[in-house]
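Example record used in the benchmark description.
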Amino acid sequence: MRILVVEDYAPLRNALVKALREEGHAVDEAATGTDGYGAAAAGAFDVIVLDLMLPGIDGLEILRRLRAEGHSEHVLILTAKDTVAERVRGLDLGADDYLVKPFSMEELVARVRALLRRGYEKKDPVLRIGHLEVDTRSHEVRVDGELVTLTAREYALLEYLALRAGEVVTRAEIWEHIYDGRASTVSNVVDVYMGYLRRKIERDDRPKLLRTRRGEGYVLAEPSR
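Model output (structure tokens):
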């Protein structure tokens, strides 16, 4: 999934970006409120990790503007201010979750995972589509109970398709949600990775779960009965 980290303290920002990328997420970053707001307003992010005390525009103003403009991305606020009034203000402005500094990186990553599931109306961390299971906590994938080894990019693609199971997902949507600003634009990269996935998760003796809709995109769904 694609995540934006807006944090002015470089050591913490770098640690956040590293931890989230190690989870397989595509991560963009900003060091000022002005840059963070510009990225958030222009991008297609699943989660925004937003510090409050920022140079330029503070985090709550960024949040207020985004919600006023109709942006619905989940926002996880980071703050050093552990007061009820501060948390209430952020939640009332449209924040989805709050984490007080200092915090455990493990907890932050878990909260991001929960927000991602919430964004696609999933409560169970294990996504099941026919004989396929995708565990969003451990990033383990099983076909008929057998563990399948995927690269981080392959897993990110499969998780996104599984979260949107039954829907047609376009190539543009895939690009927006699993690639960040570091990715080089290659016209057939999505098709290439779809081929990798098919070879790993589809079995000759089972109905196909991953289908191509020509001119539209891809669908991951249980086979029609």
